[in-house]
Write a structure and sequence with these properties.
alpha+beta, 8 strands
């Protein structure tokens, strides 16, 4: 029985070790054909300095506190159908690793957009947006220690009429 429990524990640890991070997904796909890729490093976030307020729906929104708390930003947009399917499957495995919570899903004429976060009541540690349409897959991810209230306020302001 001890061997069986040890085996299950090792199996669970090895499966979780195979889960990919945003950086690993970016590294795996960024140089493939039909891929548009953007990576912003922690060093860039540190040197950005003061970001001017941006206007959304006639309200000024300050993004600087959120941007300064980011530690990585990854964007992959794929127009190669075969590679896009592999990217989509890998991102789904990454999300389905059990730690992400679905924030929103939108479907329109075959396009599906989903947003996920991981964190706690006060902090967002990671955000993922996964979009899929007939001939394109898009993946956006950022990591950091972002104040959840600030992020929700910015999203609410951007979405307000």
């Amino acid at each position: 029985m001890k061997r069986f429990i040890t085996f299950l524990t090792l199996l669970a640890l090895s499966v979780s070790a195979l889960a990919q991070s945003g950086k690993q997904l970016y590294s795996k796909y960024s140089d493939l054909p039909g891929m548009e890729a953007v990576y912003i490093s922690p060093a860039m976030f540190r040197i950005i300095g003061k970001i001017p307020d941006m206007e959304f729906n006639d309200k000024d929104v300050n993004f600087s506190s959120i941007i300064k708390s980011m530690t990585g930003f990854y964007v992959l947009n794929c127009s190669n159908a075969e590679i896009g399917e592999k990217l989509y499957a890998d991102v789904k495995k990454f999300i389905d690793s059990g730690k992400y919570e679905l924030l929103m899903e939108a479907k329109d004429n075959g396009e599906v957009v989903r947003m996920y976060t991981v964190g706690d009541e006060k902090t967002v540690n990671s955000f993922v947006l996964l979009a899929r349409q007939e001939d394109e897959v898009s993946y956006i991810s950022f990591d950091g220690k972002i104040d959840r209230q600030q992020m929700e306020n910015i999203l609410a302001t951007a979405a307000a009429d």
